[in-house]
Amino acid sequence: MNRLQFLSYAISSAAMVSVIHLTGFTAKSQPISNRSVAQTKTAQGIRKDMQIERKNYPHLDTPVGPYVHAVSYDGLLFLSGLTAFNTPAQTGDLATQAEAVFEQIGSILEAERISFKNLLKVTIFVTAFGEVDKLRDVLFSHYQNNLPASSLIQVKSLFAPELKIEVEAIVALAGS
Q1: In this structure, are 84 and 164 located in the same domain?
Q2: Three-class SS of residue 147?
Q3: Do 46 and 64 belong together in one domain?
Q4: Total structural domains in the chain?
Q5: Global pTM?
Q6: For the segment 31-48, what is each residue's pLDDT rounded down to a tens digit?
Q7: Domain limits at 12?
Q8: What confidence tens digit (pLDDT) does each residue in 151-165 have?
C-alpha cells in the first residue's frame, strides 16, 4: 500500500480517532487536533507539507460518534455520511430524506464558498431500490449539468430504522 492509498483509506475510514502523520511509508498516531500536517514527497523528491483539517459545521448537529462532518486535504473535502437523522424529514420517504441530505451537503458547500459544481464523487447508500426514480429527480435537481461520479449501494439498514438514505461525498475545494 503506497502513501496515497494509505491516506485515502485513513481519511475515508469512519473511525478517525487519531491524526495521521506520514513519514516515509510509516504512520504514527498523535492526539486529535483540528489541523495536522502530512509530509509527503513529490515526484521530484521534494518534501511538501499539506494541511489536514478536520471540520465540524456549527449549523449541523454535532457528531455523536468518533468522526467529524468533513476532512480537507490537498484541495479536497471528504464528507462523512450524511442522513436525515434529527431533521423533519427523518420519517419521510426516500425522496424527502434525500432532499434533506442534499440540503445539508449544499449548506457545507456554501460554508466552503463553493457549489455543487465542485462535487466530484458521491456514494449513496439506500435501504431499498423501490423509490430510486424519485431519488434521481432529487439528484438531478441539485447536480443540474454537473454530474459527479457516483455509486448507489443497497444496504440492509442504516443506524436508525426509519432512515432510508445516507450520502458521503468528495468535493474539490477550488475551481467552482
Answers
A1: yes
A2: coil
A3: no
A4: 2
A5: 0.74
A6: 334 555 565 555 666 555
A7: 1-53
A8: 999 999 999 999 999
